């Protein structure tokens, strides 16, 4: 399988899951540690447009600031450091993540917006959790006034403003809820 290259200046949907669908996060501390490692290895070489950490998978929407080799190595460092710590913590051995993290080059601005909403609504879609209160997605950081390393200004500008950002998320969330009722 040929992997999508990670070109400087391009935007990518990065995602992966636990090998055989296993949990990659057992608790909040695991997720906090993953985010801490992400910050350590990647905060200076990618811009983050959205993220969500679920129990058995994660989604990131990033823009690459550096050359591919440096970015791929940073992701490798992140995943290896996290897997070693998780395996030690859970007394397991072997691979934690599926072989290669998935990456899709996203060039269309409308698709970027849909991906941001999709990523933020993952808790609702998978577990019928309230996406607005979910601690491990970037949604709350975008509607907050607190300082963040996320690309808040760019993302909110994509949606027009903060109010429309919230409106679009809620509209899509209601659609998902209606789909549950039809099942």
Automatic annotation (TrEMBL):
**Which SMART domains does the record associate with it?**
Y1_Tnp
Q: Per the UniProt entry, what is one GO biological process?
A: DNA transposition
Q: Which GO terms describe its molecular function?
A: DNA binding; transposase activity
One Pfam entry name: Y1_Tnp
Transposase IS200-like domain boundaries: 7-122
In terms of InterPro entries, this protein maps to: Transposase_17, Transposase_17_sf
Q: What is this protein called?
A: Transposase IS200-like domain-containing protein
Give the organism, scientific name: Flavobacterium rakeshii
């Amino acid at each position: 399988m040929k992997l999508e290259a990670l070109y400087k200046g391009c935007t990518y949907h990065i995602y992966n899951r636990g090998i055989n669908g296993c949990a990659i996060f057992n608790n909040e501390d695991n997720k906090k540690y993953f985010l801490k490692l992400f910050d350590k290895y990647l905060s200076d070489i990618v811009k983050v447009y959205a993220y969500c950490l679920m129990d058995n998978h994660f989604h990131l929407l990033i823009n690459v600031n550096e050359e591919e080799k440096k970015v791929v190595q940073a992701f490798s460092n992140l995943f290896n450091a996290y897997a070693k710590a998780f395996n030690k913590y859970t007394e397991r051995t072997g691979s934690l993540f599926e072989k290669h993290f998935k990456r899709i080059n996203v060039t269309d601005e409308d698709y970027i917006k849909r991906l941001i909403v999709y990523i933020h609504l993952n808790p609702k879609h998978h577990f019928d959790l309230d996406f607005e209160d979910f601690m491990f997605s970037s949604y709350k950081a975008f509607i907050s006034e607190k300082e963040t390393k996320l690309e808040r200004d760019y993302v909110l500008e994509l949606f027009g403003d903060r109010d429309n950002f919230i409106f679009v998320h809620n509209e899509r969330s209601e659609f998902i809820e209606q789909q549950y009722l039809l099942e």
